[in-house]
Amino acid sequence: MGSTYSTADTTDASGSSTSNNNNVHNVNGFTPQEANYLSNLRDLLRRQETQQKSSDYSCLASVWKYSHLLALKELTSSSSSPHDVTNIETQLMQQYPQQIELINNRCLQLDIIVSSNPDTLKAASRLSNALQHIICNNDEGGKNHFLEFVSNMIWRHGRGCNQHHTLDFIWNVCAMNATAAELSSGDIIEFCCHTASMLHYMQQNEDAFNLQSMELHEPRVVATEATIIQALTSSLNEYVTKTREHEHNFAGYGVTNNSNSASSNNGGAEGCITKREFSEWQRKIVPDLLYCSVVRMFEVLFFSPELPSHLLSSLPQNPKNSIFQKYSRPFPILESSKEFTTKTTTKAGDLTVVSSPVFGSNARSEGISDSANNSAAAASTLLSPPIFAFTSISTTKFGGKWHRLYAGADGWTFQKLEHAIMGYDGPTLLVMKASSKQNETVTLGAYTAAKWERNKRDFFGVPDCFLFQLVPTLRVLKSLPKMGTRGGHYMYFHSNTNTQNLNPSKKDELAEGLGFGGTVRTPRLFIDCHLEECRASSKDTSFEEGNLGVTPSDDPFSSTFSPSGGASTSSTLHIESLEVFAVGDKETIMRGFQAQNHYRDIADSTLRNARTVDKAAFLGDMRNGVIETKAFAHRGQVDGRAHGCLKDDGKANGM
Questions:
Q1: How many CB atoms neighbour CB 258 within 10 A?
Q2: Stretch 8-26: mean pLDDT, rounded?
Q3: Is-contact 571 560, C-beta < 8 A?
Q4: CA spacing 20 to 30 A to 34: which of 129, 466, 493, 608?
Q5: What's the rounded mean pLDDT across residues 325-339?
């Protein structure tokens, strides 16, 4: 099944679009300079790997080091042979000691990254063994075959042409046996996740590492990593189970079961999957999983991140022609909206701390101090596994900026939430952590590309939205097309506070709060106006079917039991945390906040005008009874006395 949310652009190592296919001078999508560099790198690696015994991740480390050395050599006037790494390093050390020191430090940093987690070491070793096999045992195709391999792995010919090559490589790496028909679902998910971790840390600056103790400055949050790996694995197992059940049920109706596995396999925690099943799940649920892990990892590995500007400027060659590449941050960090919504200015580089119950903090716990002993928050270098999960859903939607618009700490009221999100004209991600009566914790929410609107008393929005559950099982429930009067119920926001204050008897039957899908009385995913409870249902006409919240039990004695039969099930959860983020690229975020500031300026102006009273008109309204008051009640009582007459009784006329 094709992906609606597969949005990773086909880019080369420099981040630009790959249009090299139309250039007859290019080889496998590479420029002549890049092709020559990769050929020299292969020859150098073959020479080194055949002369020394490999262990653990030695080949991976060699690629990392030699790619740096050859890229540096391209920017110098070094005359050393590209096939002799000793001479290259010695000559460059004499001429450019600072650059070589940085490269050696990066090699030490790779050691720290790999040793920071046993599962990361396992992934690095598997990747290294596969690279060694390709580099050293590939004599028939020679250099062209190697160039073709690298081109396929970094998608130089586009996602459609190269994605199946990436999947084949990952499958063989995890199986360690090219003929394996099935793999453990957990193995392949772990490999992708830990490859993404290596990618993240390989692009960090030196301040992320302690080279003296050979440790990361911030210990990795292993528990959170394991939770997200389990959520992805459970999602894959759930998809495989449903697919096999469907194929089994419709086997007599021409549906062919190509899973090559027994339908009795329920896809449990230790379930096995086929390559086809993984590919279908990946394209439907996490279409950018391969891109934001293995593909970008290969880009960084073979085309090294550029050196700091002060080290590049001292080199004789033009850095614009460098093999070194400038990469964007692979996974975003949390940022505050205050820089856009407040009038005060902050110093460049100052960090506004954002701490999320779901995504972690954007600051280190210990902070930093300057020469004057003034403490300040230091940016965190940790990878947030939940953010990685969202990036694997769509790098375009979630791979850019994340600015938090609202958090419960800002004020646990519906009015605060309304003020925070109204007027922002851009994509937003609503995330909440909630718990059931059985103390089961669920992380769920919704993404929408449309802006929020106040008190529409009906649904609004665009089809570019989806519901999700992140934990304990990742589920992405995409919007369904509107069919006549069915569907199209994407977003809902209704607060009856003002009406209740004026006339409580006018309270309507519409649900008070915000929601997605369903009806105006019972939205599919709904947050009440007290921000206390969340109601989540499994089915409606606007989004794909699937459980959000607590999964119903098949046990009739369980409190979450729900009889089968296709009926929608629902669960009520207690909200523990609620956040709304503005997401997208830099330009999208900027336009969104500009629209919100304009919206607030208009609202403030309207409020000021409403507070400015025309005193003469106000006094006239009081006299005429438009505004009820007793201030002029005496006028009716003395009416006519000025002429010496009494009203009504006619006993005296004063004449």
A1: 10
A2: 45
A3: yes
A4: 129
A5: 92
Which has the closest alpha carbon to 357: 279, 258, 239, 445? 445
pLDDT of residue 484: 85
Sign of the Cα pseudo-torsion (149, 116, 377, 375, in order):
negative
What proportion of the chain, given as a percentage, has pLDDT over 70? 76
Residue recorded with tokens 């097309």: 481
Residue 2: exposed, middle, or buried by beta-carbon count in 10 A (0-12, 13-18, 19+)? exposed
Burial state string for 70-105 with b = 16 or more CB within 10 A and e = fewer than 16: bbbbbbbebebebeebeebbebbeeebeebbebbee
Q: What is the pLDDT of residue 22?
A: 45
Q: Is 613 helix (H, G, I), strand (E, B) or coil?
A: coil
Asked if residues 356 and 224 have their Cβ atoms less than 8 Å apart, the reply is no
- What is the full DSSP assignment across 286-340? -TTTTIIIIIHHHHHHHSPBPPPHHHHTTSSS-GGG-S-B----SS--EEESHHH
What residues contact 332, with CB distance under 8 A and at least 6 apart? 387, 391, 398, 399, 400, 401, 402
Return the number of other C-beta atoms located less than 10 Å from residue 586's C-beta: 9
Measured CA to CA, the distance from residue 212 to residue 498 in angstroms comes to 62
For 495: left if phi > 0, alpha if psi spans -120 to 50, otherwise beta; the answer is beta
Residue of 616 and 231 predicted with greater confidence: 231
Task: Give the pLDDT of residue 616.
Answer: 66
Confidence of residue 11 (pLDDT cuts 50, 70, 90): very low
Model pTM? 0.85
Single out the residue of 625, 560, 584 nearest to residue 450, CA to CA.
Answer: 584
Tell me, rounded to whole angstroms, the distance of Cα 439 from its chain centroid: 27
pLDDT at 261 over 50: no
pLDDT tens column, 266-291: 444 457 999 999 999 999 999 999 99
Please tell me the distance from the alpha carbon of residue 655 to that of residue 652, in angstroms, as a whole number: 8
- Residue written as token pair 């599919």: 524
What letter does residue 410 receive in the DSSP assignment?
A: G
- Using CA of residue 512, residue 517, residue 518, residue 519, what is the dihedral sign? positive
Please check whether residue 92 is in contact with residue 100, taking contact to mean a CB–CB distance below 8 angstroms. Answer: yes
